[in-house]
Amino acid sequence: MKKLFIALVIGLIGYACSEEKVGVYSLERDYIYFQYESSRLGAAMNVADSVYLYYNSSSVSVNSSRQRDTFFFRVQVAGVARSVDRKINIEPYSFLTNGREEAIAGVNYVAFDDPEMEKCCVVPADSVSVNIPIIVTYDPAIAGSYKGFMFAFKLVDSEDFEIMATNSNLSANPARTHAFVQFTQSN
Fold it and tell me: Cα–Cα distance between 74 and 71 in angstroms, integer?
């Protein structure tokens, strides 16, 4: 019995020490999401559809002497780096503004379909992340008044990426696909 036990233990150790080749990790598609960085962004809010919202905790403001301000959101790829530039699609959506006015594209911020923003909504070749600028602008039509604005936006599928929320098997947490910026205009 003792010899059988020793032979069994040696056999199990030999089997456990065998080398197994592991293939390269890959997904059928690459996915994107907003990377949460607590040092730059505020707390997360869990909404009814289980999509997290991230917002700026730093001050973003415009006035007659500072007519543009920029806040950056990091978009992360769940997948592998590719040897070509890949386009990210982002679009605005309506959101409860909590006493702030909803920002208007082309008036209070540079729209995502503006050529200036289109060149920024790209993950460069051989990269798996990019900082996307949110450019808020001064509205001379309301000069002399103080107003608070909110601008909500979300990642949407593109030819190169799906949003992370479309594949719930990739993460135990809901994907971070929605974000918003709060900003003010004075003078």
Answer: 10
- The β-bridge partners of 34 are 75
| CA distance linking residue 11 with residue 14, whole number of Å | 5
* Region class of 98: left (phi > 0), else alpha (psi between -120 and 50), else beta: left
- Is residue 168 within 8 Å of residue 128, measured between CB atoms? no
Cβ–Cβ < 8 Å for 95, 154 = no
CA–CA distance, 131 with 151 (Å, rounded to integer): 17
pLDDT tens-digit map of 118-154? 999 999 999 999 999 999 999 999 998 899 898 889 8
Cβ atoms of residues 41 and 55 within 8 Å: yes
Does residue 7 sit within a domain?
no
Q: For residues 9 and 137, give the distance between their C-alpha atoms in angstroms, rounded to a whole number.
A: 72
Tokens describing residue 184: 């003010």
* DSSP-based three-state secondary structure for 96: coil
15: β partners: none
Look up the domain containing 148 and give its range.
28-185
**pLDDT digits over 150-181, tens only?**
888 989 999 999 887 655 555 444 557 888 88
> Any idea how long the chain is?
187
What CATH number is associated with residue 155? 2.60.40.2030
Nearest to 126 by CA among 80, 72, 76, 75: 80
